[in-house]
Fold Nuclear prelamin A recognition factor.
Amino acid sequence: MKLTRTVPKWTGRRGTLGLPAPALPRCDRKKECSKKTKTDDGENVSPDVPSLAQENSEKGEFHKLADAKIFLSDCLACDSCVTAEEGAQLSQQNAKDFFRVLNLNKKCDTSEHKVLVVSVCPQSLPYFAAKLNLSVTDASRRLCGFLKSLGVHYVFDMAIAADFSILESQKEFVRRYHQHSDEQRALPMLTSACPGEPRFQGWVRYAERVLGHPVTPHLCTAKSPQQVMGSLVKDYFAKQQNLPPEKIFHVVVAPCYDKKLEALQEGFSTALPGAQGTDCVLTSGEITQMMEQSDLSVKDAAVDTLFRDAKEAVVRRHDGTGSDGHLAHVFRHAAKELFNEHVEEITYCALRNKDFQEVTLEKNGEVLLRFAAAYGFRNVQNLVLKLRKGKFPYHFVEVLACPGGCLNGRGQAQTEHGHTDKFVLRQMEGIYADIPVQPPESSAHVQELYQEWLEGTDSLKAQEALHTSYQSPERCTAALDMKW
């Protein structure tokens, strides 16, 4: 997806630092994507969706923003995935909506004011570090300082949301392993964190709207980190600050554009009745454009935390080469829980290509666990074909729509011409590899949230806040013949 925008200058007030509640500012069916698209072979498909330029009549301190063009090669959803209504909603997932809230917060009508919260994906930080030529910690502080200079009140790291997603995935895999039989095919388990929200994303949307059975019963029900973070901000954090969820405007900074699709409907659930978990998604590239075109004097600022006993969030990651590492963490947990085997180092064996890798646990010549990582839709399609034919050798597959994983998200690792910026990607991979790894099981804050926020690890509230369900409409018979 290519975004060409003139990003306005902001001269408003700085946001509040720390956790105390901020004082709100005063005074034969053809497969086509129904978004405005440009495929790799040059085919263009334009929907009847109002453009940003048409909607820029509102006066404010910000200049007009150019149209945001969504390219099919950048968004992996398919099967006429965006209706006209969804397209109109998607057009609001941009910097203009973010600036609109900043402007509202400057007006005297305090009833319109909102607390601005920004959550940053761990895979976005290496991009900022590479672009700013800083360490990942310094880049995180610079990003936080810039956002607060615009008027953002809180900036959070989303690593803790990934903790919950991984822990719930671990438990679900062990449960499925025990339930699996010839009569009840609970395995393989396919990850659902790319990006996560059913009905509005790349991999899971493809599985639901196109594949249907036999794929959807195998999707992990654990919510994606973005979904979990939405619940943390609009439920746990809102209660901490004594704010109704609708008074918080939650922005996620993410490496890919599918996160915008995910945000459209992610919050409407029993866990957040009437509230949307994520109000706006901005890609790392969009934020970088703002920083490059701004003349603000920015002072580095500490990233906020959800906990009163922590002064600044420490930059950390999970054990994945370019993602949140569901495969590595679930594999270690399953080996210990199911076979009492402690796995220190995980050895990946590349099969068809570098984006299709296998991990096995063997004992006395017997394969106990066989996991795989499948990145990019060509590899995903091959796995689905094997699953349909009943020739599927894996217990678990980490599925990511972007080749190379989340670091290669099209919202940050692309050149002006839409190709992968290999130099920047190599930089990001090196930076990401140097970030300290912290297993989610070792986080005292996660255990604290399980008890204080969710009333226990196996409570009904935990189930509602951390798990989802999937639709499985009648599948198009030609869907699996699509070429990716």
Q: What stands out?
A: Residues 1-21, 23-80, 196-201, 474-484 have pLDDT under 50 and may be disordered.
